[in-house]
Specification:
This protein is an alpha+beta fold and about 850 residues long. The protein folds into 5 domains: about 210 residues, Jelly Rolls; about 30 residues; about 110 residues, Immunoglobulins (Immunoglobulin-like), CATH 2.60.40.10; about 100 residues, Immunoglobulin-like, CATH 2.60.40; about 170 residues, Glucose Oxidase, domain 1 (3-Layer(bba) Sandwich), CATH 3.50.30. Helices cover about 20% and strands about 20% of the residues. The longest helix is centred in the middle third of the chain and has 22 residues. About 10% of the residues have low confidence. This is Aste57867_13732 protein. Pfam families: fn3, PA. Keywords: Repeat, Signal.
Length: about 850
């Protein structure tokens, strides 16, 4: 990098004499002082030299005004900083002798004579100058050969106008500048530098002419035989240039050079050069259309040149008048009026006309003037550097907090509303998806209390922050900001670097320790907890409650099949979103199917479609007090406060539409199976006392379902105390003589199985493995026609207090943990009709 920097510097110095006089004065101070003094090492690489300058207190923010640094050291550091800024845009560029001729010509627009808008300054400004169109104006300027000889040194290839020459003074009385140059800001800053004066450029051979430092150029042909072409300027090692953005690149021309008759006027935007083969008068100027671009160039050139520095300070001055005349007349383009600032009041007040104007017309002019003033003010508002995300914590799943320069400071007492418009677009968005916008007023913006270095050490001001909401997770965006003050809207900043929002994932941890609230519901407790701070970018679909029970010293057992909780490794149950209640702060839900007299602990985690987040702390131990009058109740599908089982394979699948497993559609009535009198009957939330010991029928001899019941015969090794509320479902195959195909439906329901084909133990075992809460064995072959006796189950008789299978091996049935009962054929038919 050091060698390349030295090469650029040598070329910069060597070619300074080849530039036109208006430029040569600016680059004279770019020369390297051979004796830089004390500890300055000229052979150090640029990055090392720049780091050493910063270690000595140098920064771009104080480069122009720091009186505490040694002048020699300050000049050296300014030179290093200049080269450091120059190098990135000049890697691989040629010497200035190659110029920009390699760039292909671009289209030169022509103003339309019969279009009234093209004949006005406002129309030309908005149609061509703001769009960076190289354009031939309809205007024609007259100039005599005597004027050229008296006001310019025609013996030189490049000669500035001798405005103070006595011989030139008479000709200046009738000299006019091009219309679109009339609002030149440079005339309000300085009129002494040659670059602010017209320049006669004589080119016997085709040569490229341009204006430096982001200035626009106007060329007026001084010969009838001149031709001209316009091309994009490519950076060269002799000057700093800001490249044009892609939207400014015009359509390539197929014609190349065009005729440029005497007196015709060509507008060339900044960033472009014109190749001419004859004499022409060049104007370099700045107005609202390139105001901020000029300041960008001068900010770099001011490192080396005091004139550029003074210009930069003048253009930055808050008192600079950036207004522009909308209806330019010959009185504005006359040389004396053009050079004079401030202008006479009669020239600045456009509403004062000599002729009488109707009131309606005056009102329209006033409206147009207001719109014009707003446009100009917006173009001259300061432009921030690209916004950025200052830290990773500013990037979220659906929002990003951006930081950008606080570039606007309203005057004390100014109540004009202002803020910033943030524009963003996804990098993978289609062409039909336009950018999104949001206005952030001053009230919602957050200003830093101290100066920031987030934008480099050449900005020592404060930063400002604003949050953009409504973004998509795991998506890359670019952002830009622009200032608005009242009705005036400024220019967009450059696009930010790509910022990718965070990916969606599992929710964050449930905070704190859930609180246990006992309820009157049998075998249930209610938990209350705080929701997670982060939902993982997806809607919370439920909460997972994990539990453990049976404390023995310091060991706890996880929920298992005996407790009728989930059989999976984490032994948890899911409370669906519609099963919990949420107040302003807390979430609460009930956990049922608990045993009396057993201590429990619980923990809670949130669940979305990506999975389960971290669990909360364990609750304090709690115990459901035993009751001498009531026994445990197991709730299945169809029962009030039934818990949905947690299925990790479903919960952790991002492609799943729902992380909470949904149960199948109801397959029949909700039944109540109880050891109380060994009955199977329809479940009723409020039980009505029976008026008859037998089922009842209506007038049409149809069974009144709520009155139906059936006596059942429990297995000899079935749990002795049970209360089950759930839907019955017929297994597939009905005899359970093979793997159960509808295991998902059987889970958390009462399995209905035909008797026959294989031992009863095998049927009950397969139902338990499928997750059934209980089993109804149907005597479809009517073996129990005489009752629950030895004919129904050999070796067993209900009258002796035995269950069916009393002669079976107890060790065989020890693996069965769910109730299983036998139903006679007549009762089975009624139940099967209901299931159908």
């Amino acid at each position: 990098m050091r060698v390349l920097g030295a090469t650029i510097w040598a070329l910069h110095a060597a070619h300074a004499a080849d530039m036109d006089p208006s430029i040569a004065g600016w680059t004279a101070e770019v020369q390297v002082d051979a004796s830089l003094g004390f500890d300055i090492d000229e052979n150090a690489p640029l990055d090392v030299a720049l780091a050493k300058c910063k270690a000595n207190g140098y920064s771009r923010g104080n480069a122009f005004l720091d009186a505490t640094m040694h002048p020699t050291l300050l000049d050296h550091c300014n030179k290093i900083q200049y080269l450091e800024l120059l190098l990135p845009s000049h890697q691989g560029t040629a010497s200035p002798s190659d110029d920009a001729a390699a760039s292909p010509p671009v289209r030169i627009h022509a103003s339309v004579d019969d279009d009234p808008a093209e004949q006005t300054y406002q129309g030309f400004f908005q149609r061509h100058m703001l769009r960076t169109h190289a354009t031939i104006s309809t205007e024609t300027l007259s100039m005599s050969d005597e004027f050229l000889q008296k006001c310019f040194d025609v013996t030189k290839a490049v000669s500035p106008m001798e405005v103070h020459s006595p011989e030139c003074q008479p000709h200046l009385e009738t000299f006019h500048v091009p219309t679109f140059v009339a609002n030149d800001y440079m005339q309000r800053v300085s009129t002494e530098d040659s670059i602010t004066r017209p320049m006669l450029v004589q080119a016997p051979q085709p040569s490229t002419v341009h204006c430096r430092y982001g200035l626009h150029m106007s060329l007026v042909s001084a010969s009838s035989d001149t031709s001209v072409s316009v091309s994009v300027r490519t950076p060269t090692v002799d000057e700093y240039m800001i490249p044009l953005s892609a939207i400014d690149d015009p359509t390539p021309s197929l014609n190349g050079a065009i005729s440029f008759p005497r007196g015709h006027v060509l507008f060339v935007p900044n960033g472009f050069g014109a190749t001419i083969d004859g004499p022409a008068i060049r104007f370099c100027f700045a107005d609202a259309s390139n105001f901020n671009r000029v300041k960008q160039h001068l900010r770099v050139e001011a490192l080396l040149d005091t004139t550029a520095r003074s210009w930069l300070f003048a253009l930055r001055d808050a008192t600079l008048d950036t207004s522009m005349v909308r209806r330019v007349t010959p009185s504005h383009t006359a040389w004396r009026a053009f050079r004079r600032w401030p202008k006479p009041q009669k020239l600045t007040k456009e509403s004062n006309a000599d002729e009488a104007i109707p009131r309606r017309e005056r009102y329209k002019i006033w409206q147009d003037d207001r719109k014009w003033d707003g446009l100009v003010q917006g173009l001259t508002l300061p432009v921030s550097r690209p916004p950025l995300a200052a830290s990773p914590s500013d990037i979220h799943r659906t929002s990003v907090t951006l930081t950008w320069q606080d570039i606007f400071h309203p005057r004390k007492g100014d109540i004009t509303p202002y803020g910033y418009e943030v524009t963003w677009q996804a990098e993978d968005a289609s062409a039909l998806d336009g950018p999104m916008k949001r206005n952030l007023s001053a009230a919602v913006l957050v200003r830093s209390g101290l100066p920031t270095t987030a934008f480099g050490d050449d900005f020592d001001g404060k930063a400002i922050q604003g949050t953009v909401l409504g973004l998509a997770p795991n998506t890359s965006y670019t952002f830009s900001v622009r200032l608005f003050v009242g009705d005036a809207i400024g220019l967009h900043s450059e696009r930010s670097q790509s910022i990718r929002t965070n990916s969606c994932g599992e929710p964050s941890v449930v905070r704190g320790q859930p609180e246990i609230v006992k309820t009157d519901d049998l075998n249930c407790i209610r938990l209350t907890w705080l929701p997670p701070v982060d939902d993982g970018g997806r809607v919370i679909q439920g909460y997972v409650v994990a539990g453990r029970y049976g404390r023995d010293v310091l060991q706890w057992r996880e929920f298992n099949a005996t407790m009728q909780f989930d059989h999976l490794a984490n032994k948890a149950v899911v409370l669906a979103k519609d099963s919990v209640t949420t107040d302003i702060v807390n979430v609460s839900g009930a956990v049922c199917n608990l045993r009396q007299g057993v201590p429990y602990q619980f923990q809670v985690a949130a669940l979305n479609e990506f999975g389960v987040g971290p669990f909360s702390l364990w609750t304090d131990p709690t115990t459901i007090d035993p009751s001498a009058h009531q026994i445990d109740v197991m709730r299945g599908v169809g029962a009030p406060r039934f818990h949905r089982q947690y299925d990790r394979t479903c919960a952790t699948a991002p492609s799943s539409t729902s992380a909470v497993p949904t149960t199948s559609k109801p397959t029949g009535p909700v039944m109540f199976l109880s050891d109380k009198q060994d009955l199977l009957e329809p479940y009723q939330l409020i039980s009505i006392p029976r008026t008859s010991p037998t089922p009842e029928y209506d007038a049409s001899k149809k069974l009144i379902w709520t009155s139906w019941f059936a006596n059942v015969w429990p297995g000899h090794y079935s749990p002795k105390a049970y209360n089950i509320i759930a839907e019955p479902v017929l297994v597939d195959p009905p005899y359970a003589d093979g793997p159960i195909a509808n295991a998902a439906d059987v889970r958390d329901r009462i399995a209905v199985i035909y008797r026959g084909k294989l031992p009863l133990f095998n049927k009950v075992w397969r139902a338990q493995e499928a997750g059934a809460l209980g089993v109804l064995l149907l005597d479809v072959d009517n073996i129990c026609a005489t009752g629950f006796d030895y004919h129904c189950s050999p070796g067993s008789n209900v009258m002796h207090g035995e269950g069916f299978g009393a002669q079976d091996d107890a060790a065989t049935w020890s693996a069965i943990q769910i109730p299983h009962v036998l139903l006679r054929q007549d009762d089975a038919r009624v139940l099967l009709d209901r299931l159908a």
